[in-house]
Fold this sequence. Notes:
Layout: H1 26-30, H2 37-48, E1 54-60, E2 65-66, H3 70-80, E3 88-91, E4 97-98, E5 105-110, H4 118-141, E6 146-149, H5 160-169, E7 174-175, H6 178-181, H7 194-199, H8 204-214, E8 221-224, H9 231-242, E9 246-251, H10 260-263, H11 276-288, E10 295-299, H12 304-312, E11 319-322, E12 334-340, E13 343-344, E14 359-360
Parallel strand pairs: 6-7, 6-11, 8-9, 9-10, 10-11
Antiparallel strand pairs: 1-5, 1-12, 2-4, 3-5, 3-14, 12-13
Helix pairs in contact: 3-4, 4-5, 4-12, 8-9, 9-11
Amino acid sequence: MATEPLPERAAPRRERLDPGVFRLPVERIREGYYSDVYFNRTVDVLRSDQRHPHVLMQVFQKQDSVIGGMDEAIAIIKLCSEDFSQLQVRALYDGDPVKPWETALTIEGDYSLFARLETVYLGVLSRRTKVATNVRRVVDAARGKQIIFFPARHDHHLVQTGDGYAAYVSGAIGVSTDAQASWWGGKGVGTVPHALIAAYNGDTSRAAEKYAEYIDPSVNLVVLVDFENDCVRTSLEVARRLGQRLWGVRLDTSETLVDVSVQKVMGDFDPRGVTPQLCQLVRGALDREGFTHVRIVASGGFNVEKIERFEREGVPVDAYGVGSAFFKGSYDFTADVVMVEGRPCAKVGRRYRPNPRLELVS
């Protein structure tokens, strides 16, 4: 599916993470446990034939995207190659925009020293770049409003750390688990959940009060207010009970339901889920009672298109929570040997594409 080019933007940081951050299973990767088996057999052939071709490996993908996973890929090459000191690596940075076919990474040296690693570093780049690109598109759509990264429940827990970092370098303000925040030393953020409200017999304001009583007071207190499908009434109850302690309310109405307050104004719009009309009703009710400090967080089915619509219409939302939309699409990386012994040598249709943006990895 074609996508609009991403706006040019400077990388958020020009320092690379220390390879130790990633806690890689070095021996397993080095022995080829995670590699496509033909790469392992390639190494076996080269070693048996005592052949050590000096190659330039070039890595690219085919869409306008934002690089994610580069520091992780570099860590794989540094820690899991046979001898990194004999290799020369040049690369873009996490968070850098990259064009279709633009070279994102090169590895130069004895091919037998790093041949096993291709499957692993390409997989890392493909996964993290998908997340980083989707986050950047959502961040741009939100026009500076906060984006909270909520996709942890939609995938295996072992991908959380790298996905969280990919979101961070692309502009997400908050992530929902400590694992997602661990590579940059942050902490997960969250709201008073539906389950805690249920534990207090469906009394949202009571659950929020207990949450405020026992949770670190420095935590921004955000309360889900759709438990009874009446976000206006519940928001006011919570605000009255918590006052200035309440940072925000989160609207998360199911896309199969129509909130009680919206039912009174139904007309020429789709009333289901979190709608512009619902946000406006909640904002108006809070403001009328003097709770202008209370922010509105909107979640539930939000993606680039829905956020763009809300922003075009000036909907009073202060932050968006986004989940599974961050995993849409694919950004597949390819690696090609394009030079051998300093001479062009690539399969038909591929060629060396030097990129002055690449920086030498020390």
